[in-house]
Every structure is written in C-alpha cells, then in structure tokens.
Amino acid sequence: MSVPDFDAWFAAQGFRNFAAREFTDYFAASRKGVRNHTPPRSLWHNIVPALRVADDLRDSFGEPCILLSSYRAPDYNRAVGGAPASLHMEFKALDLCLPLVGARQAYRRLVEWRRAGRFTGGLGFYPSSGFVHLDTRGTNATWSGR
User: Fold this and answer.
1) In the beta sheet, which residues pair with residue 97?
2) 47 three-state secondary structure
C-alpha cells in the first residue's frame, strides 16, 4: 500500500534502513474485522526518535530488523489486545524482530544504549514471541512479556 503524503514525508527523513512501505503496509492491517489506518499527519514526527534508534540497531548488527507493529488506531489497538494507553496509538512505539540476532540480544543492546544515554524510553522484552518493544516516551520503563 502506498500513502503518497506519508511516503514523501518518510523519504525526507533520511532513514538508512527502513522504507515507508514497512509502515504503510501495517497501516492497512486488519485484526478481528477491525482495520488499522494511517496515523494523523500531526503524529508522524512522533516516530522519528524511535525509528532512529531502530535504524542504528539494524546497522549495529548488520542483520535484518523487521517492524512488526507501529501506529495503531485506537480500535485496532483494542482488537490486537494492546494496552489501553499504548504508545503505539501516539506513533511513538515500535515492535521489532531481528530474526538472525534474536530478541534477547537485541533487547540487551537497547538496554546498553539506553544506559549510555542514547535514548530515553520504554523497552519491553517478549521472548516467547521473539520481539522487543521500543518507545521514546521520554522516561525509562522496562518490562518483560510472554
């Protein structure tokens, strides 16, 4: 799926390792009969800090980094079982999978970077699902899920 305004905005951000399509395909996702949608333009800038960290993470391992979840419309967030105040609804959060690296190693790298002051935000580790959650909420939070 292409969202021309988003595609152009995204290209102007200069990310090295991600394409707008990785987001726009997710904006068109459906779950339990509920369709996600493109975030309001006023939220687009919110994803930049988290995506810069993800861009660096992909570079640091030299391996693919797959975006599993980004913006979630409120109804879609409920359909996927997201937290009621999920930062995905503010377009400040990403769920990432690095299949050749593993969630544990990716999570450890992100914890190191956060300790070193490279970013401030939330980190969730989901070992049985094989992904990490990364957000740039402005305060540090850490949790482990299933």
Assistant:
1) 66
2) helix
What are the pLDDT digits (tens) for 44-58? 999 999 999 999 999
Give the structural domain span for 130: 4-144
Q: Report the CATH number at residue 62.
A: 3.30.1380.10
- Joined tokens for residue 37: 């949608």
What CA–CA distance (Å, rounded) separates 72 from 80?
9
Domain count, the chain: 1
In order of 5, 72, 93, 120, 144, the CA distances from 117 in angstroms are 33, 28, 18, 7, 21
Q: What is the pLDDT of residues 109-141, one digit of tens each?
A: 999 999 999 999 999 999 999 999 999 999 999
- Residue 54: closest CA among 70, 63, 65: 65
